[in-house]
Amino acid sequence: MKRLKGRFLDSIRLHVKGGPGGMGLPRYGGVAGKGGDVYVEAVKEHTLYKTMAANPRKRWSGGVGGNSRRFSIVGEVGKDLTIPIPKGITVKLEGIKSMGEINNDGEKIMVARGGAGGSPLNQYNGQKGQANNIVLELKLLADIGLVGFPNAGKSTLLRAISKAKPKVASYPFTTLRPTLGTLEYPDMRQVTMADLPGLIEGAWANTGMGHKFLRHVERTKLLLFVVDVNGFCLGPQYPYRSATETIILLNKELEIYKWDLVDKPAVLMVNKMDTPGAEDKLHTLVQDLSRLPEVSQKFPEEYRPERWVSFSDVVPCSAKVNPASIEHLKQRLRHLLDFHHADIASDREVVEAQARGVVQKLLVHHSKKLV
Ligand SMILES: Nc1nc2c(ncn2[C@@H]2O[C@H](COP(=O)(O)OP(=O)(O)OP(=O)(O)O)[C@@H](O)[C@H]2O)c(=O)[nH]1
Ligand SMILES: [Mg+2]
Protein backbone atom coordinates (compact mmCIF):
# COMPACT_ATOMS: atom_id res chain seq x y z
CA MET A 1 0.00 0.00 0.00
CA LYS A 2 1.40 3.36 -0.95
CA ARG A 3 0.58 6.51 0.87
CA LEU A 4 0.85 9.81 -0.93
CA LYS A 5 -0.14 12.27 1.69
CA GLY A 6 -2.31 11.84 4.71
CA ARG A 7 -5.37 9.95 3.68
CA PHE A 8 -4.56 9.75 0.02
CA LEU A 9 -4.02 6.22 -1.17
CA ASP A 10 -2.47 5.44 -4.53
CA SER A 11 -3.14 1.72 -4.70
CA ILE A 12 -4.59 -1.00 -2.50
CA ARG A 13 -4.55 -4.76 -2.52
CA LEU A 14 -7.62 -6.83 -1.67
CA HIS A 15 -8.33 -10.49 -1.26
CA VAL A 16 -11.58 -11.37 -2.97
CA LYS A 17 -13.35 -14.68 -2.95
CA GLY A 18 -16.49 -15.89 -4.66
CA GLY A 19 -18.97 -17.61 -2.35
CA PRO A 20 -18.95 -21.43 -2.32
CA GLY A 21 -21.80 -23.24 -4.02
CA GLY A 22 -24.31 -25.07 -1.81
CA MET A 23 -24.59 -28.83 -1.47
CA GLY A 24 -26.86 -30.73 -3.83
CA LEU A 25 -29.24 -33.46 -2.73
CA PRO A 26 -28.44 -36.65 -4.63
CA ARG A 27 -31.44 -38.56 -3.46
CA TYR A 28 -33.85 -36.14 -5.11
CA GLY A 29 -31.56 -34.87 -7.86
CA GLY A 30 -31.63 -31.52 -6.04
CA VAL A 31 -29.49 -28.78 -7.47
CA ALA A 32 -27.95 -26.31 -5.02
CA GLY A 33 -27.49 -22.57 -5.44
CA LYS A 34 -24.26 -21.17 -6.85
CA GLY A 35 -22.07 -19.00 -4.67
CA GLY A 36 -22.28 -15.19 -5.00
CA ASP A 37 -19.88 -13.34 -7.32
CA VAL A 38 -17.72 -10.44 -6.19
CA TYR A 39 -17.67 -7.16 -8.13
CA VAL A 40 -15.98 -3.81 -7.83
CA GLU A 41 -18.14 -0.84 -8.78
CA ALA A 42 -17.36 2.86 -9.03
CA VAL A 43 -19.42 4.96 -6.66
CA LYS A 44 -19.63 8.72 -6.87
CA GLU A 45 -17.09 10.57 -4.73
CA HIS A 46 -15.66 7.38 -3.33
CA THR A 47 -11.98 7.08 -2.44
CA LEU A 48 -9.63 4.16 -1.94
CA TYR A 49 -9.40 5.28 1.66
CA LYS A 50 -13.14 4.72 2.09
CA THR A 51 -12.82 1.28 0.49
CA MET A 52 -10.15 0.43 3.03
CA ALA A 53 -12.09 1.90 5.94
CA ALA A 54 -15.16 -0.14 5.00
CA ASN A 55 -13.23 -3.35 5.49
CA PRO A 56 -9.78 -2.96 7.04
CA ARG A 57 -9.11 -6.71 6.86
CA LYS A 58 -9.23 -6.35 3.07
CA ARG A 59 -11.03 -9.67 2.63
CA TRP A 60 -14.26 -9.67 0.70
CA SER A 61 -16.36 -12.76 -0.03
CA GLY A 62 -19.52 -13.47 -1.95
CA GLY A 63 -22.51 -15.11 -0.25
CA VAL A 64 -22.74 -18.86 0.24
CA GLY A 65 -25.04 -20.73 -2.17
CA GLY A 66 -28.06 -22.36 -0.53
CA ASN A 67 -28.14 -26.14 -0.12
CA SER A 68 -30.76 -28.15 -1.91
CA ARG A 69 -33.27 -29.41 0.68
CA ARG A 70 -36.08 -31.79 0.65
CA PHE A 71 -38.69 -29.05 0.72
CA SER A 72 -36.77 -26.56 -1.35
CA ILE A 73 -35.17 -28.66 -3.96
CA VAL A 74 -33.48 -25.83 -5.85
CA GLY A 75 -31.00 -24.11 -3.55
CA GLU A 76 -30.95 -20.34 -3.33
CA VAL A 77 -28.28 -18.46 -5.25
CA GLY A 78 -25.65 -16.91 -2.97
CA LYS A 79 -25.69 -13.11 -2.68
CA ASP A 80 -23.35 -11.19 -4.94
CA LEU A 81 -21.05 -8.77 -3.18
CA THR A 82 -20.19 -5.39 -4.62
CA ILE A 83 -17.15 -3.51 -3.34
CA PRO A 84 -17.54 0.25 -3.71
CA ILE A 85 -14.47 1.92 -5.23
CA PRO A 86 -13.69 5.31 -6.82
CA LYS A 87 -13.55 5.82 -10.57
CA GLY A 88 -10.23 6.18 -12.40
CA ILE A 89 -9.04 2.75 -11.33
CA THR A 90 -7.11 0.02 -13.07
CA VAL A 91 -8.05 -3.36 -11.66
CA LYS A 92 -5.25 -5.90 -11.77
CA LEU A 93 -4.95 -9.47 -10.84
CA GLU A 94 -1.90 -9.71 -8.60
CA GLY A 95 1.19 -9.85 -10.73
CA ILE A 96 0.68 -7.64 -13.72
CA LYS A 97 -2.38 -8.89 -15.54
CA SER A 98 -4.98 -6.19 -15.99
CA MET A 99 -8.60 -7.21 -15.45
CA GLY A 100 -9.95 -3.94 -16.74
CA GLU A 101 -10.43 -0.27 -16.07
CA ILE A 102 -13.16 1.64 -14.34
CA ASN A 103 -13.39 5.18 -15.57
CA ASN A 104 -16.97 6.22 -14.80
CA ASP A 105 -19.35 6.01 -11.87
CA GLY A 106 -21.56 2.95 -12.06
CA GLU A 107 -19.09 0.83 -14.06
CA LYS A 108 -18.39 -2.55 -12.56
CA ILE A 109 -16.16 -5.57 -13.11
CA MET A 110 -16.40 -9.07 -11.70
CA VAL A 111 -13.27 -9.88 -9.72
CA ALA A 112 -14.14 -13.33 -8.36
CA ARG A 113 -16.74 -15.82 -9.51
CA GLY A 114 -18.85 -17.78 -7.05
CA GLY A 115 -18.55 -21.58 -7.02
CA ALA A 116 -21.06 -23.77 -8.85
CA GLY A 117 -23.83 -25.26 -6.75
CA GLY A 118 -23.91 -29.02 -6.17
CA SER A 119 -25.57 -30.85 -9.07
CA PRO A 120 -25.24 -34.11 -10.98
CA LEU A 121 -22.34 -32.51 -12.85
CA ASN A 122 -20.17 -32.38 -9.75
CA GLN A 123 -21.51 -35.29 -7.75
CA TYR A 124 -23.70 -32.83 -5.81
CA ASN A 125 -20.71 -31.21 -4.15
CA GLY A 126 -20.80 -27.44 -4.12
CA GLN A 127 -17.64 -25.93 -5.63
CA LYS A 128 -15.36 -23.41 -4.00
CA GLY A 129 -15.51 -19.83 -5.23
CA GLN A 130 -12.62 -18.28 -7.13
CA ALA A 131 -10.05 -16.65 -4.82
CA ASN A 132 -8.02 -13.76 -6.18
CA ASN A 133 -5.64 -11.14 -4.91
CA ILE A 134 -6.44 -7.97 -6.77
CA VAL A 135 -4.73 -4.60 -6.86
CA LEU A 136 -6.71 -1.41 -7.39
CA GLU A 137 -4.51 1.33 -8.81
CA LEU A 138 -5.72 4.87 -8.85
CA LYS A 139 -4.96 7.05 -11.83
CA LEU A 140 -4.74 10.66 -10.71
CA LEU A 141 -7.06 13.13 -12.31
CA ALA A 142 -5.02 16.20 -13.19
CA ASP A 143 -5.33 18.61 -16.09
CA ILE A 144 -1.61 18.66 -16.77
CA GLY A 145 0.97 15.91 -16.28
CA LEU A 146 4.69 16.65 -16.06
CA VAL A 147 6.90 14.31 -18.02
CA GLY A 148 10.66 14.56 -17.99
CA PHE A 149 14.04 13.05 -17.30
CA PRO A 150 15.24 13.20 -13.69
CA ASN A 151 16.65 16.53 -12.50
CA ALA A 152 15.05 18.50 -15.33
CA GLY A 153 13.27 20.78 -12.86
CA LYS A 154 9.72 19.37 -12.78
CA SER A 155 9.35 19.80 -9.05
CA THR A 156 10.99 23.23 -9.18
CA LEU A 157 8.39 24.19 -11.78
CA LEU A 158 5.50 22.91 -9.68
CA ARG A 159 6.80 24.92 -6.72
CA ALA A 160 7.11 28.05 -8.83
CA ILE A 161 3.75 27.76 -10.54
CA SER A 162 1.55 26.59 -7.65
CA LYS A 163 1.50 26.54 -3.88
CA ALA A 164 2.61 22.90 -3.76
CA LYS A 165 5.96 22.25 -2.13
CA PRO A 166 7.44 19.10 -3.65
CA LYS A 167 11.01 18.24 -2.73
CA VAL A 168 13.71 19.68 -4.99
CA ALA A 169 17.32 18.52 -4.98
CA SER A 170 20.30 18.41 -7.29
CA TYR A 171 20.33 14.64 -7.66
CA PRO A 172 18.19 12.47 -9.94
CA PHE A 173 15.09 10.66 -8.66
CA THR A 174 14.30 13.18 -5.95
CA THR A 175 10.59 12.77 -6.56
CA LEU A 176 9.48 9.30 -5.56
CA ARG A 177 5.73 9.77 -5.60
CA PRO A 178 3.33 11.87 -7.60
CA THR A 179 2.40 15.25 -6.15
CA LEU A 180 -0.49 17.43 -7.20
CA GLY A 181 -0.46 21.21 -7.34
CA THR A 182 -3.12 23.73 -8.28
CA LEU A 183 -2.55 26.65 -10.62
CA GLU A 184 -4.78 29.56 -9.71
CA TYR A 185 -5.84 32.20 -12.20
CA PRO A 186 -7.24 35.68 -11.45
CA ASP A 187 -10.70 34.67 -12.70
CA MET A 188 -10.75 31.86 -10.10
CA ARG A 189 -10.22 29.14 -12.68
CA GLN A 190 -8.12 26.35 -11.20
CA VAL A 191 -5.97 23.93 -13.11
CA THR A 192 -4.29 20.92 -11.55
CA MET A 193 -0.79 19.73 -12.35
CA ALA A 194 0.77 16.38 -11.42
CA ASP A 195 4.51 16.23 -10.74
CA LEU A 196 5.79 12.74 -11.43
CA PRO A 197 9.02 10.90 -10.78
CA GLY A 198 11.64 11.30 -13.53
CA LEU A 199 11.75 8.83 -16.41
CA ILE A 200 14.81 7.58 -18.22
CA GLU A 201 15.31 5.46 -21.28
CA GLY A 202 14.40 1.85 -20.64
CA ALA A 203 11.87 2.89 -17.98
CA TRP A 204 9.53 0.36 -19.56
CA ALA A 205 11.99 -2.31 -18.42
CA ASN A 206 11.88 -0.80 -14.93
CA THR A 207 15.13 1.14 -15.26
CA GLY A 208 15.17 4.05 -12.81
CA MET A 209 11.76 4.47 -11.21
CA GLY A 210 10.16 2.48 -14.01
CA HIS A 211 7.26 3.82 -15.97
CA LYS A 212 4.46 2.76 -13.65
CA PHE A 213 3.77 6.39 -12.76
CA LEU A 214 2.83 7.07 -16.36
CA ARG A 215 -0.59 5.74 -15.50
CA HIS A 216 -1.13 9.10 -13.83
CA VAL A 217 -0.81 10.94 -17.13
CA GLU A 218 -3.41 8.74 -18.81
CA ARG A 219 -6.21 10.91 -17.51
CA THR A 220 -4.55 14.28 -17.99
CA LYS A 221 -5.64 16.65 -20.73
CA LEU A 222 -2.21 17.96 -21.56
CA LEU A 223 1.34 16.70 -21.26
CA LEU A 224 4.02 19.15 -20.25
CA PHE A 225 7.46 17.87 -21.21
CA VAL A 226 10.13 19.43 -19.02
CA VAL A 227 13.66 19.18 -20.39
CA ASP A 228 16.94 20.55 -19.15
CA VAL A 229 18.40 22.58 -22.02
CA ASN A 230 21.80 21.10 -21.08
CA GLY A 231 20.62 17.52 -21.44
CA PHE A 232 21.12 14.79 -18.88
CA CYS A 233 23.66 12.27 -17.69
CA LEU A 234 22.80 9.82 -14.95
CA GLY A 235 26.41 9.10 -14.03
CA PRO A 236 29.94 8.52 -15.36
CA GLN A 237 29.13 5.09 -16.74
CA TYR A 238 26.00 6.31 -18.53
CA PRO A 239 25.79 8.04 -21.90
CA TYR A 240 25.15 11.78 -22.06
CA ARG A 241 21.79 12.69 -23.59
CA SER A 242 21.22 16.05 -25.20
CA ALA A 243 17.91 17.87 -24.69
CA THR A 244 16.69 16.62 -28.08
CA GLU A 245 17.67 13.07 -27.25
CA THR A 246 15.81 13.19 -23.95
CA ILE A 247 12.67 14.25 -25.83
CA ILE A 248 13.00 11.32 -28.26
CA LEU A 249 13.57 8.87 -25.44
CA LEU A 250 10.62 10.23 -23.44
CA ASN A 251 8.46 9.99 -26.54
CA LYS A 252 9.44 6.33 -26.84
CA GLU A 253 8.65 5.58 -23.21
CA LEU A 254 5.18 7.12 -23.60
CA GLU A 255 4.56 5.17 -26.78
CA ILE A 256 5.57 1.90 -25.17
CA TYR A 257 3.44 2.56 -22.11
CA LYS A 258 0.35 3.30 -24.15
CA TRP A 259 0.55 4.21 -27.80
CA ASP A 260 -2.20 6.83 -27.74
CA LEU A 261 -0.57 8.87 -24.96
CA VAL A 262 1.52 10.30 -27.76
CA ASP A 263 -1.60 11.88 -29.27
CA LYS A 264 -2.37 14.05 -26.28
CA PRO A 265 -1.86 17.79 -26.62
CA ALA A 266 1.70 18.51 -25.52
CA VAL A 267 3.83 21.51 -24.60
CA LEU A 268 7.60 21.55 -24.35
CA MET A 269 9.18 23.54 -21.55
CA VAL A 270 12.89 24.04 -22.06
CA ASN A 271 14.24 24.67 -18.58
CA LYS A 272 17.41 26.11 -17.04
CA MET A 273 17.70 28.89 -19.60
CA ASP A 274 19.73 30.85 -17.02
CA THR A 275 22.71 28.48 -17.39
CA PRO A 276 25.76 29.34 -19.55
CA GLY A 277 25.42 28.57 -23.25
CA ALA A 278 21.69 27.94 -22.95
CA GLU A 279 20.71 30.17 -25.88
CA ASP A 280 22.90 28.25 -28.34
CA LYS A 281 21.64 24.92 -27.08
CA LEU A 282 18.05 26.13 -27.39
CA HIS A 283 18.76 27.16 -30.95
CA THR A 284 20.06 23.67 -31.78
CA LEU A 285 17.11 22.08 -30.01
CA VAL A 286 14.57 24.11 -31.96
CA GLN A 287 16.25 23.13 -35.22
CA ASP A 288 16.31 19.47 -34.16
CA LEU A 289 12.61 19.54 -33.35
CA SER A 290 11.72 19.73 -37.00
CA ARG A 291 13.79 16.64 -37.78
CA LEU A 292 13.30 14.36 -34.80
CA PRO A 293 12.95 11.14 -36.84
CA GLU A 294 16.32 11.90 -38.44
CA VAL A 295 18.03 12.57 -35.09
CA SER A 296 16.55 9.38 -33.70
CA GLN A 297 18.39 7.32 -36.33
CA LYS A 298 21.45 7.30 -34.07
CA PHE A 299 19.60 5.16 -31.54
CA PRO A 300 19.07 1.43 -31.82
CA GLU A 301 15.72 0.61 -33.32
CA GLU A 302 14.02 -0.20 -30.01
CA TYR A 303 14.54 3.39 -28.84
CA ARG A 304 13.12 5.00 -31.96
CA PRO A 305 9.52 6.15 -31.68
CA GLU A 306 7.03 5.11 -34.33
CA ARG A 307 4.53 7.80 -33.42
CA TRP A 308 5.64 11.28 -32.58
CA VAL A 309 4.44 13.70 -29.94
CA SER A 310 3.65 17.05 -31.49
CA PHE A 311 4.30 20.13 -29.41
CA SER A 312 1.93 23.01 -29.81
CA ASP A 313 4.32 25.31 -27.93
CA VAL A 314 7.99 25.43 -27.05
CA VAL A 315 8.49 27.61 -23.99
CA PRO A 316 12.01 28.45 -22.79
CA CYS A 317 12.00 29.03 -19.02
CA SER A 318 14.01 29.19 -15.91
CA ALA A 319 11.91 27.68 -13.18
CA LYS A 320 14.47 28.55 -10.55
CA VAL A 321 15.40 32.14 -11.28
CA ASN A 322 12.90 33.67 -13.70
CA PRO A 323 9.35 33.99 -12.36
CA ALA A 324 8.26 35.96 -15.46
CA SER A 325 9.03 32.97 -17.69
CA ILE A 326 6.89 30.77 -15.45
CA GLU A 327 4.05 33.29 -15.53
CA HIS A 328 4.20 33.20 -19.33
CA LEU A 329 4.11 29.39 -19.31
CA LYS A 330 1.15 29.49 -16.94
CA GLN A 331 -0.77 31.73 -19.35
CA ARG A 332 0.05 29.51 -22.33
CA LEU A 333 -1.12 26.41 -20.47
CA ARG A 334 -4.39 28.09 -19.61
CA HIS A 335 -4.87 29.18 -23.16
CA LEU A 336 -4.27 25.68 -24.54
CA LEU A 337 -6.51 23.98 -22.01
CA ASP A 338 -9.31 26.42 -22.82
CA PHE A 339 -8.71 25.87 -26.53
CA HIS A 340 -8.94 22.08 -26.26
CA HIS A 341 -11.94 22.36 -23.98
CA ALA A 342 -13.70 24.58 -26.52
CA ASP A 343 -12.83 22.02 -29.17
CA ILE A 344 -14.56 19.26 -27.24
CA ALA A 345 -17.49 21.52 -26.38
CA SER A 346 -18.04 22.55 -29.99
CA ASP A 347 -17.97 18.89 -31.09
CA ARG A 348 -20.67 18.24 -28.55
CA GLU A 349 -22.69 21.23 -29.72
CA VAL A 350 -22.58 19.90 -33.27
CA VAL A 351 -23.70 16.42 -32.25
CA GLU A 352 -26.60 17.80 -30.26
CA ALA A 353 -27.55 20.20 -33.02
CA GLN A 354 -27.44 17.43 -35.59
CA ALA A 355 -30.00 15.59 -33.54
CA ARG A 356 -32.23 18.64 -33.74
CA GLY A 357 -31.61 19.14 -37.45
CA VAL A 358 -30.10 22.57 -37.07
CA VAL A 359 -26.56 21.67 -38.00
CA GLN A 360 -26.47 24.00 -40.99
CA LYS A 361 -27.13 27.04 -38.89
CA LEU A 362 -24.43 26.09 -36.45
CA LEU A 363 -21.79 25.50 -39.08
CA VAL A 364 -22.41 28.96 -40.47
CA HIS A 365 -22.08 30.32 -36.97
CA HIS A 366 -18.79 28.48 -36.40
CA SER A 367 -17.25 29.51 -39.69
CA LYS A 368 -18.04 33.12 -38.83
CA LYS A 369 -16.18 32.70 -35.58
CA LEU A 370 -13.13 31.43 -37.45
CA VAL A 371 -12.72 34.51 -39.66
N1 LIG B 1 20.09 26.74 -12.94
C1 LIG B 1 18.87 26.22 -12.80
N2 LIG B 1 18.68 25.14 -12.02
C2 LIG B 1 17.45 24.64 -11.92
C3 LIG B 1 16.33 25.21 -12.61
N3 LIG B 1 15.25 24.48 -12.32
C4 LIG B 1 15.64 23.50 -11.49
N4 LIG B 1 16.97 23.60 -11.23
C5 LIG B 1 17.76 22.72 -10.35
O1 LIG B 1 17.78 21.41 -10.90
C6 LIG B 1 17.83 20.45 -9.84
C7 LIG B 1 16.71 19.45 -10.03
O2 LIG B 1 15.46 20.07 -9.82
P1 LIG B 1 14.13 19.24 -9.47
O3 LIG B 1 13.00 20.20 -9.55
O4 LIG B 1 14.31 18.47 -8.21
O5 LIG B 1 14.10 18.24 -10.71
P2 LIG B 1 13.03 17.11 -11.04
O6 LIG B 1 12.79 17.15 -12.49
O7 LIG B 1 11.85 17.26 -10.15
O8 LIG B 1 13.86 15.80 -10.70
P3 LIG B 1 13.34 14.34 -10.24
O9 LIG B 1 12.35 14.54 -9.15
O10 LIG B 1 14.58 13.68 -9.77
O11 LIG B 1 12.78 13.70 -11.47
C8 LIG B 1 17.73 21.22 -8.55
O12 LIG B 1 19.04 21.38 -8.04
C9 LIG B 1 17.15 22.56 -8.98
O13 LIG B 1 17.53 23.61 -8.13
C10 LIG B 1 16.58 26.36 -13.42
O14 LIG B 1 15.70 26.92 -14.06
N5 LIG B 1 17.86 26.81 -13.49
MG1 LIG C 1 11.09 16.03 -8.80
How would you sum up this structure, described in words?
40% of the residues are buried. With 371 residues, the protein is of the alpha/beta class. The N and C termini lie far apart (54 Å). The N terminus and C terminus are likely disordered. It is 25% helix and 22% strand. Strands 1, 2, 4, 6, 7 and 9 form a six-stranded mixed sheet that branches. A six-stranded mixed sheet has the order 11-12-10-13-14-15, sandwiched between helices. A hairpin with a 4-residue loop joins strand 6 and strand 7. Magnesium ion binds next to helix 2. GO terms for molecular function: GTP binding; GTPase activity.
SSE layout and pairing:
Layout: E1 2-3, E2 9-17, E3 38-42, H1 48-54, E4 59-61, E5 81-85, E6 89-93, E7 98-102, E8 108-112, E9 131-138, E10 144-148, H2 154-161, E11 179-184, E12 190-195, E13 222-228, H3 243-257, E14 266-271, H4 278-289, H5 292-295, E15 311-316, H6 323-356, H7 359-370
Parallel strand pairs: 2-4, 3-5, 10-12, 10-13, 13-14, 14-15
Antiparallel strand pairs: 1-2, 2-9, 3-8, 6-7, 6-9, 11-12
Magnesium ion is lined by residues 154-155, 166, 174-175, 195.
How would you concisely characterize the structure shown here?
The protein is an alpha/beta fold.
Please count the helical segments: 7
What's the total count of β strands? 15
Sketch the topology as an H/E string, one letter per element: EEEHEEEEEEEHEEEHEHHEHH
| Count of domains | 2
Strand content: 15-25%
Distance between termini?
A: 54 Å
Cofactors and ligands present?
guanosine-5'-triphosphate, magnesium ion
* General shape: elongated
The percent of residues in helical segments reads: 10-25%
**For the record, what CATH class of the largest domain applies?**
Alpha Beta
By CATH, the architecture of the largest domain is named: 3-Layer(aba) Sandwich
CATH topology of the largest domain: Rossmann fold
Question: Averaged pLDDT, please?
Answer: 89
SSE-based structural type: alpha/beta
The largest sheet is:
6 strands, mixed
Radius of gyration, in angstroms, nearest whole number: 26 Å
Residue runs with pLDDT of under 50 for 5 or more positions: 1-7, 358-371
CATH 4th-level superfamily of the largest domain: P-loop containing nucleotide triphosphate hydrolases
Pfam families: GTP1_OBG, MMR_HSR1
GO biological process, one term: ribosome biogenesis
Keywords: GTP-binding, Nucleotide-binding
InterPro entries: G_OBG, GTP-bd, GTP1_OBG_dom, GTP1_OBG_dom_sf, OBG_GTPase, P-loop_NTPase
